[in-house]
Amino acid sequence: MAQKAIREYDAKSILARHWDAYFPNFNYPYQTILVQTGDELREAAKTTHPWLAEKPLVAKPDMLFGKRGKNDLVLFKVNKPGDVTLEDAAKWIDEKRAEKQKVYFSFDGDTPTGEPSEDYLTHFIVEPFTPHTQDEEYYISATVVGDEDVLYMSAEGGMEVEEGWDEKVTEVAFPITATEEEIEKKIRENIPADVKDEDKEAFAEFAIGFFKAYRELNFAYLEINPFVLQGNNVELLDMVAKLDDTAGFMMVDHWGDIEYPTAFGMEAKSPEVEAIEEADAKTGASLKLTLLKPEARIWTMVAGGGASVVYADTIADFAGIDDLANYGEYSGGPTTGETKFYAETILDLMTREKDPKGRDKILIIGGAIANFTDVAKTFTGIIQAFEEYAEKMKEVGVRVYVRRGGPNYEKGLKDIKEAADRLEIPIEVYGPETHVTDIVRMALEEK
Amino acid sequence: MSKLFTKDTQAIFWNNNKTAIQRMLDYDYVIKREKPSVAAIVAPTSSNKFEKFFWGADEVMVPVYKSTAEAKAAQPQADVLLNFASFRTAYDVTMEALNLGGFKTIMITAEGIPERLARGMNAKARELGVTVIGPATVGAIAPGAFKIANIGGTIENIVNSKLHRAGSCGLVTRSGGLFNELSNIIAINADGIAEGVAIGGDRFVGSVFIDNLLRMEENPDVKYMVLLGEVGGTEEYKVIEAVKSGKIKKPIIAWCIGTIAKYYDSGVQFGHAGASANDDRETAEAKNRAMKEAGIHVPASFNDLPEVINGVYKELHAEGIIKDIEEPAINTIPAYRRPKQFICTISDDRGEEATYAGFPISSVALPSTGKGIGDVISLLWFKKQYPKWATDFIETVIKTVADHGPAVSGAHNAKVTARAGKSVVESLVTGLLTIGPRFGGAIDGAALYFKYADDNNLSPKEFLGYMKKQGVPIPGIGHRIKSLKNPDLRVKGLMDYAAENFPKTPLLDYARTVEALTTSKKENLILNVDGTIGILMVDMWRALGYSETEIDEFIESGTLNAFFIVGRSIGFIGHVLDEKRLAMPMYRHPMDDILYDVQKAEPIG
Questions:
Q1: B102 CA to chain A: closest CA distance, Å?
Q2: Domain harbouring B488, CATH code
Q3: Which residues in chain B (198-217) have CB-CB distances under 8 A to chain A?
Q4: What pLDDT is attached to residue B262?
Q5: N or C: which end of chain A has fewer CB within 10 A?
Q6: Residue B152: which of B307, B20, B13, B324 has the closest Cα?
Q7: Which sequence spans correspond to the domains of chain A?
């Protein structure tokens, strides 16, 4: 996936690092800190971030989700707005991280809709409380829509901007080839009418710098909602950002040390998935694994990105998704060793428990006709994994269905058939003369 | 441009990916292309000049260049760039090619080019009317004409999937793996494809579905199209628009994969980077439904796709729109091939009569042909037919250097060896082995240094200063007895010949200005015969249109020395035969001509 969400703290840090290049006429204090515990905050106040002890504070979780105010997860007052001390913030952080918190992602007015996600809060961003009035709050964001970059600007910042989007927000679209002059001109011509007259010039200048930063720093999405304009002083109250991580190799120095956290409420990745990701990062080939429902009975080990989707589609069509345990693919000519590791991981997961309804488990070793992956070589890896897991496979009752074509496929199919027969694992093997997904139908017709 | 490729299309392959290139050439051989589909390889870090590939059982050489610019200059007819650079450099390679111009199609294989760079590159190509295939693709194919790299897989699969000759379907997919699968399905259920493109899996690709389908609409070989889309993006809606507006009239069969995605939240990435639905319109189901409503043939599931293809094909066949295809004869690739140990590019003795660079020997050897030794040298050394003024010059040089008397070291060696009772060949090589930097080397040296000075625009004074710094006397300058007043007639003859027959003599003109300076210091520091030959050879090659790099290569590889070797062999053989006829006894050097100064060796260590 090319577009990855980053923390608010990291987004602000990236902008701060390049502040003078994009916003030379604005002051941004960049007083912000990311902590995991109250103690960490207290320690920082004594050393690196003395302002923590000097100013009233605001604290909130920094874990990719928004609507923190509506979820009552922003600490900006104890008795009245702007009275939060260092100690208040530290205690609040420890209190919030101690227990799982419910977070709603959508609201109707102030009423949450849909199911909440429940998880621990682990990261908090703490900043000075900035007294300001509602009419000093503005909204700005930019992203890619179709082939164009679109800049969104509004004179009304804050959470309410999404309600009444069409009336409040001005959209300006730019082709990738737009020059700096064209961009400046178009932005100046489209400053929202509601922006206060005395702020119009500053707003335009800030928007131009913002859009340039978005383009040049390879953001895929960048939103400040709201930012506060007080003369030449700017405060970024809330930010959301995604980076195009494929640009990472050119942006190392520009982005600094960036983390791509998992979304709040997403189950932590299993060790098996992490191991596959690690192996994937080390090879020129591609190894991907997502666990959908580990207790389900149909497992897939499919070669190729497109084919893996087609198999998943077909299983959903024929059996429904309740029976589908995983999604994944191997491709790009993995070595025998890499394929063995991938196969072992899947066999290990699928042979841990029997099907609760007592049915056989099904392993689909599928794939289209390969362009250059040597089928016999990858199948050798799968056969080696079979040898390790043959007993367990028989114990839980695994039936194997193979369909594959491509370089050396005859040998690959013959080898895997012989190995399975020798190990007494039930197997059916098909080549390119059989339609790619037909083994799914065959597997499900047999009981 | 209704067809992406023809049987004459040639590509420049960026990156020396030998397996993929061999697959292209195997394909070429099987479909009986006349010329290899790869005209050149660009490999910036390679010092090879060519790479060998099998052509059937035989082998061919594909030239290797260090840059796209060089490759394009040498192979201007190659209008396809196969960009196999990594995701780090693929953008730069594409942009360089777009700036160079002359490419109709650029295919980019790298996955994960930064999105902003990919968008910029695609926009520029679009503006210039260049078709970009990819990034993140396995390529495209025009069966029976041209195939990119690995698409289609092995030769066996290509023939099984009828990708070796044009069928009647236009195929466009996102996925490269499923492209092969679809080709196979279309071969089994219809008559194969006429043109196929895998547009690539990244979010921003150059040519999209609609670009390719509109071209296929214009291609008379394409009778219907198969489109395999994916969840994510809105490209399929452009196709729907084109069908509704009548821009596309040929039947389309289409399916979007990824119908499963609706069951999971956006945390699960199904398939490619481009495959993720941002809103309901982008789901596979919505797109399948919309395509069906627009009159596109959409199966109930991917599993039913073969049936639908078969149905449309049969209908078009029954209507006579699709005719039966006569299966063409194909070449087969031998199961066992061995790379050749030696390469010969100058002569060939396999036919009726041996040839020199393509010319039967009799056509250059017999007096009636009017050809001389200069012509033979131009064929065998340079693989070109030099004009008469150049071959005459070569002969003049050979005649001029044939002998320089018995006292020079080479001739002396040959004579001493002959007197030791050795054969002609043994005596000759003894003499030849003397030729090197000090004997005969002035020709090489003069060419090298004068060319260097001229290339770098050194004034005669700067040149003298430069040589002084190098600590080398200027090669080709100076004679034992000859001077400006007492000129060397051989030199004068060569210069007169050049003045009369060479189109121009820039290096000689420069050398004369140097000579004017050196002779002002000392009478006998004239341009000597070695210097004149070396310098005029450079002028000859320049006039014949060789590049400076090529001329430098001639000098470096010792070609100038070779003229001296050939010429002087005549003289050496003369001296050897002379000794034999005179039956001279074994030579022993008089002892009184040797200074003996032998000290007793001290023990050391």
A1: 22
A2: 1.10.230.10
A3: 201-204
A4: 80
A5: C
A6: B20
A7: 3-29+133-255, 33-128, 271-445
B45 pLDDT more than 80? yes
Owner of token pair 């039947």: B251
Place of tokens 């199609």: B105
Residue B554 domain flag = yes
Provide the domain count of chain B.
Answer: 2
Q: Alpha-carbon distance A303 to A402, whole Å?
A: 11
Question: Largest Cα–Cα distance in chain B?
Answer: 113
Question: The CATH number of the domain where B275 resides is what?
Answer: 3.40.50.261
When pLDDT is averaged across residues B526-530 and rounded to a whole number, the result is 92
Mean per-residue pLDDT, B30-43: 97
B393 within some domain: no
Q: What is the pLDDT of residue B277?
A: 59
Rounded average pLDDT over B40-46: 96
Q: What CATH number labels A271-445?
A: 3.40.50.261
Q: Which domain holds residue B437?
A: 409-582
CATH 3.30.470.20 fits A3-29+133-255, yes or no: yes
- Spatial contact of A343 and A276, defined as CB atoms under 8 Å apart: no
Using alpha carbons, select from B571, B591, B586 the residue that is nearest to residue B407: B571
Distance from C-alpha of A269 to C-alpha of A289, rounded to nearest angstrom:
11
Residue at B483 is within a domain: yes
Instruction: Note whether B177 contacts A441, CB cutoff 8 Å.
Output: no
| B238 contact A CB<8A | no
CA B188/CA A435 separation, integer angstroms: 10
Average pLDDT, chain B: 93
B184 CB neighbours in chain A (<8 A) are: 369, 405, 432
Tokens read off for B565: 């070797």
Q: Which fold has domain A33-128?
A: Dna Ligase; domain 1 (3.30.1490)
Catalytic annotation present for B404: no
Among B257, B287, B298, B305, the residue to mutate for chain A (most A Cβ within 10 A): B257
* Averaged pLDDT score across all residues of chain A: 92
Task: Place A153 in a pLDDT band, splitting at 50, 70 and 90.
Answer: very high
Residue B151 at interface with chain A, using a CB cutoff of 8 Å: yes
Looking at residue B268, its pLDDT comes to 64
Whether B312 and B418 map to the same domain: the answer is no
Q: Can you tell me which residue has the tokens 């050496």?
A: B572
The answer on pLDDT for A115 being more than 90 is no
The interface pTM score, or ipTM, of the predicted complex is 0.89
Residue B217, pLDDT above cutoff 90:
yes
What is the rounded average pLDDT of the residues B504-525?
Answer: 93
Q: Which of the 8 DSSP states describes residue A25?
A: T
SS3 A175: coil
Q: Partners of B62 in the beta sheet?
A: B51
Residue A290 in this model has a pLDDT that exceeds 60: yes
- How many other C-beta atoms are found inside a 10 Å radius of the C-beta of residue B15? 20
Would you tell me which residues 417-436 of chain A have a C-beta closer than 8 angstroms to some C-beta of chain B?
Answer: 432-433, 435-436
Residue for token pair 């383009």: A215
Mean pLDDT in residue range A333-352 = 94
Phi and psi at residue A300, to the nearest 5°: -120, 145
- Decide if B498 contacts B539 (C-beta within 8 A): yes
